[in-house]
Amino acid sequence: MPSEAISFDLGPFFYAETAMYDNMRSAIGTSSGDNWVRMMIAHHEGGAEISRIALQQNPPLRIADLARRTVKAQERAAVQLEKLLRDGPVNMESAFIFVSPIQSMHDASMAIDGSDVSEIWLRKMIEHHRGAIEMSNVLLSQPRIPKKTVTAVEELNNAQHADMKVLEQALDDQKSQEHRGSP
């Protein structure tokens, strides 16, 4: 019996999410703090790319505005984090503390599906932000984190929480509109 190719739609975000996951896992630095910085840069670059893809899907105006704001915020955050990069020998062991939150974020985001790209993007970005917060919490539980890195973590956590509230409200609004049958 000839084999049949399995064909299914991986969705518009699949390759960007997979690249972000791979880039985060391979962003190894000199210490737990430097690993967090490198992984978070890859995280933000991935979030910006996922948001650019959402914009290519011609979303409603409100979602497009949120996606544009997300691209700018993610790019700006990556540039700020680059200032914290350290040179030195790679410390692979200090990167292992981030494996679980990276995997959890990736699994949660990849499990999101549906037919409405705007809703999918909102839900994926909420998981994206949760992942950043979890990675930050892991780092903050470590000893001897440089003060500048702690400050960056705290600023990032505040921004992620604020962004999640906006995204969750947009998701609730979208679901309410669908329930009422509004465009």
UniProtKB/TrEMBL annotation:
Recorded source organism is Novosphingobium pentaromativorans US6-1
Residue span, DUF305 domain = 18-85, 111-170
- Per its UniProt record, what Pfam families does this chain match? DUF305
Q: Which InterPro entries match?
A: DUF305_CopM-like, Ferritin-like
Question: Cross-referenced Gene3D superfamilies, in alphabetical order?
Answer: 1.20.1260.10
* Domain of life, source organism: Bacteria
Name recorded for this polypeptide = DUF305 domain-containing protein
